[in-house]
Write a structure and sequence with these properties.
Elements (H helix, E strand, L loop, with lengths): L6 E3 L5 H9 L4 E3 L10 H11 L2 E4 L3 H5 L9 E3 L7 H14 L2 H4 L3 E3 L1
Parallel strand pairs: 1-2, 1-3, 3-4, 4-5
Helix pairs in contact: 1-4
Length: 111
């Protein structure tokens, strides 16, 4: 397991957030970049598990996946349009600085 949180942004997340994280040296992938844009949620989940990444999403459907006992490396959820790009980047940077990947296993953070 990595020693720092690595994020994966689903297709509903503004790409400017990925740019903001990368400018701060944080490892991030996006659904579009890894070719999962037309794939099912199950394919996204499989990728996230394989890569041990924290999912950042505005899709509430991923929240129902979490309580079903499925192992995951963390979810960050915020409702669509509820926060500015800067607010989301600031929150994710703070998470990256204070939490470890082990602390995010099975955890859901709401922004």
């Amino acid at each position: 397991m990595a020693d720092k949180i690595r994020f994966h942004l689903d297709e509903h997340i503004n790409h400017a957030i990925a740019r903001g994280l990368r400018q701060r040296g944080i490892e991030v992938t996006t659904t579009v970049e890894v070719g999962l844009c037309t794939m099912s949620d199950e394919a996204q989940i499989a990728y996230i598990r394989q890569e041990e990444r924290v999912l950042v999403t505005s899709d509430a459907g991923f929240l129902s996946w979490s309580p079903q006992g499925e192992k995951h490396f963390g979810i960050v959820y915020y409702p669509p349009g509820s926060h500015s790009i800067g607010d989301v980047v600031t929150f994710l940077v703070l998470m990256h600085e204070i939490l470890t990947p082990n602390e995010m296993i099975g955890r859901v953070e709401y922004l």
